[in-house]
Amino acid sequence: MTRPRGEGATGEYRWALPSVLLGDGRDGRRVHRSTRDWIVDIVMFLLASGLTLVTLPEIQDEPEPLIALEQVMGALACIGVWLRRRWPVGLAVVTAVFSAFLELVGGASVVALFTVAVHRPFKISGPVVLLSLVTLAPYIMLRPPDDMSPGAAAVLTSAIVLTAFAWGIVIRARRQLVWSLRQQAATAAEDAKRLERERIAREMHDVLAHRISMLSLHAGALEFRSDAPPDEIARTAGAIRTNAHQALQDLREVIGVLRHTGSGEEDPVPDRPQPTLADLPALVEECRQAGMDVRLDLRAEDAPEGLGRNLYRIVQEALTNARKHAGGAPVEVAVDGERGKGLSAEVRNPLATRHAPRIPGAGAGLIGLTERAELAGGRLEHGATPAGEFVVRAWLPWPVETTREGS
Q: Transmembrane stretches, by residue range (predicted)?
C-alpha cells in the first residue's frame, strides 16, 4: 500500500488517499477501475442522467436553438461523468460554469462536485464548491422559477449543492480513517516481526555463544594436552561433537523461525522447550564437565517459566563470559528470590591474571543481558570490584500474581 507523497504513515494527506483505495486517475493518468468502481460509476452516470431527465420539462418553453443547445450540452455533461475519476476538478469547474445559464448540465455538475469532495482535499474542493454556489446567482436570474420566489430557489439549490459536497466530505473522511487503520495495522505487524527477530537474535546469541565457547574450551584442552590419555581425548572429542551438533540444531531452528516470520504465514511455529530456573544445575554440571570450577547456590526453584528463562539466560551468558575471559578461575553463582520481592542472581569470578586475545563479539553479550533485564522490567549491573573480581548482578521483578508464562 502506497503512502501519500511526501508524508509518513501517520502524516497528513498531501493530496488524497492512494489511488488503489479511491480508483483515482490522479493528474490525468489512466484509471484502473475495480468491479466496485464500475458499479459506482454506472450509478453516478444514471444519477446524472436521471437529474437531467427530471429537469427536461423546464426547457420546453425555451426557443428551439436554446433547447437544442441544452440537449447537446446535457448529453455531453452526462457522458463527461465517466471522466470524473481522471479529471475531477476540471469536470467540476466546466460543469459549474455551464450550469450558470444551462438547465440540463445541473445533474452532471452535482455529481462532479461530489467527486471532487471525495477525491481532493478541502483546499481544492473548497474553492470548487464556492464556484458552484456563485454560479447559482446568474442561474436564478436567467431562469427564475415560476412556482417559488428567487430567495426560496436560492436556498433550495444551495442546499442541494452543499448536501452533495458534505456527502463527499463524509465519504472521504471515512476512507481516510480506513486507510489510516490499515497503515497502522501494517506498521504494527512489521513492528511485531522486528521485535520477534530481535528476541530470536538475543536467544541465539546466548545459546550459540555458550555452545561455541564450550567448543573453544574443549579444543584448547586438546591443543595444550596432546599427551592426554586416549580415553580423556575421546571424551573431549565427544563433547566437541555433542556441542557442535547442538549448535547446528539451534541454528537450523532459528533459521526456520526467521523464514516463517518473513513468509506471512499465520500458523505459529511451535517453540522448542525453553530452559527454566530448574535447568540451572544441569547448566552448571555441563560447565564442570568442561573443566570449569563452578559453585551454585540456588535458593529459588519455583519461579514462573518466563521469569526463570530470563534468569537462566543471564546466568548462562555470565558463565560464558567467565569461561572466555577468565578461563580456569573459580566462578560462584548465587540465585535467590521470592514472590513479591523479585528474583536476583549474582555471578562472580576473579579477574583474569593474563591478557587474553580479544574474542570477536566480546561485550555484545553484556549489552544483550542488560536489554533482556530491562525488557523484563528489571536491571542488570556488571563490572570489576576493588577486590579484583568481576561481578554480574541481575534483578528481575516477581509479581505476587503471575501467569503460567510469568512474563
A: 38-59, 65-83, 90-118, 154-173
Give the ranges where 81-149 is alpha helix by DSSP (H).
88-98, 106-119, 122-134, 136-142
Whole-angstrom Cα distance, residue 89 to residue 41?
A: 16
Per-residue pLDDT reduced to its tens digit, 379-396: 999 988 888 889 999 999
Higher pLDDT, 340 or 33: 340
Question: Which domains, and CATH codes, for the chain?
Answer: 19-186 (no CATH), 194-264+273-396 (3.30.565.10)
Global pTM value: 0.49
Q: Which amino acid is at 111?
A: V
| 104-121 pLDDT tens trace | 888 888 999 998 999 899
Gap between the Cα atoms of 404 and 218, Å rounded: 38
Element counts in the chain: helices (H) and strands (E): 12, 5
Which residues, other chains included, contact 380 with Cβ-Cβ below 8 Å and sequence gap of 6+? Answer: 314, 369, 370, 372, 373, 374, 392, 393, 394, 395
Amino acid making up residue 73:
M
Please calculate the CA angle 99-73-139 and round it to the nearest 5 degrees: 20
Give CA torsion, residues 12, 16, 20, 22, to 10 deg.
130
